[in-house]
Predict the 3D structure of the following.
Amino acid sequence: MAGTQTTKAPPSLLYMVKQVELVVRSHLDELVRPSGITALQYTALTVLERHDGLSAAQLARDSFVTAQSIADLVRSLEGRGLIRRERNPRNRRELLILLTEEGRELLARHEGPVRELEERMVRDLTAHQSEQFRLALTKAWQALS
């Protein structure tokens, strides 16, 4: 049909969220690689910084990894001296995972560069748009949780 224009549908929101996740993870991996950790390990450390003393299952959920992969992640971080495990005084069968001083120091070293990455991600947004973006992401996460 001559003269008929077809417009492509915009990419789905799920696709766009995945694109952002992948590019953020790639940049984060670059930032933390000199410290010998991955973006996933960094994420787990930041979870412990906010909520120290989690079980492996809680850390897996909050770090967005499977229960199976958290065991390797914890072993690696513990081997590096970035976390430690100790018995839960209220449930002796459960081990709690805690951030060590070395883990806190590693996070402190990366605080500025990670903040710069986040600022770069939203630099073309106004402060209001950035806050709305944060709110929209929170609501989307809550709707699916």
